[in-house]
Amino acid sequence: MARPKQSTRDRILEQALLLFNEQGYGQVTTAALAAHCGIAEGNLWYHFKTKRALLEAIVDRFTAIIDVRLAMRPPPHDAVGGYAAMLEALMQEQRDFRSLYRDQHAYGEHIDLTADKVPAWLRRTFDQLEGYYAAMVDAELLDWPRDRLHDLAINATLILRYGLEHYREMGEPTARGTGAVTRTLLRHLTLFEHRLDPEAAARLHAAVERIGEALPEAA
Fold first, then answer.
1. What is the pLDDT of residues 152-175, one digit of tens each?
2. Measured in whole angstroms, how far is the alpha carbon of residue 152 from the centre of its chain?
3. What CA–CA distance (Å, rounded) separates 54 from 16?
4. CATH number for the domain formed by residue range(s) 59-214
């Protein structure tokens, strides 16, 4: 069965996100985006009256994606496998929407589109990771004080959220084939792998390698 034809609006949105990811939000003009899409700039304005409207549509799409990931919870009998699946979803969203993570300084007057959402996303991520760690403690796979699980979740989130940006600021490569995603995931494991059951630690290391191979592009 033939796939439904993509609408012009959806194609503009998809290509805008790709260009923002590759070149940076501030570097992509509407004229360049229209040319990339093979349409007149007036046609682009027909679908998105302003660049802010385009950014709003991308943020709406991202919100739907992140809500799905934030709804993930540890399965009853496999907290480690569930954690690996959540990590993959988290790194996927950071790759697919990396301009939202990376380019907030370039949004200018549009910064409010994400500024009011980011704190809630981060707090929900802290709580999500804490739930996975608590499940590992309950399963006797992680030896960690329960009153310090939230701190662990915060520190792990910071590494996962800002790890790639740290590499960029240090001048380290983050593009395809550099292993930046794998390095970021391995760095977050250093927080708690020494307190994990050895088999659980081995499973997470194997999952990290698999995720890094599946999501090699981080630039």
1. 999 999 999 887 777 777 777 666
2. 19
3. 8
4. 1.10.357.10
Which amino acid is located at 35 in the chain?
A
Q: What is this structure's pTM?
A: 0.84
Other C-beta atoms closer than 10 Å to the C-beta of 145 total 10
Nearest residue to 47 via CA among 27, 30, 63: 30
Angle at 18 between CA 211 and CA 160, to 5 degrees: 35
Give the count of beta carbons closer than 10 Å to the beta carbon of residue 3.
Answer: 5
CA distance 191 to 197: 14
Three-class DSSP category at 142? strand
**Which residues does residue 142 pair with via DSSP β-bridges, in sequence order?**
196
Domain ranges within the chain, ordered by starting residue: 1-49, 59-214
Q: What fold characterizes domain 1-49? A: Arc Repressor Mutant, subunit A (1.10.10)
pLDDT in tens, 133-143: 999 999 999 99
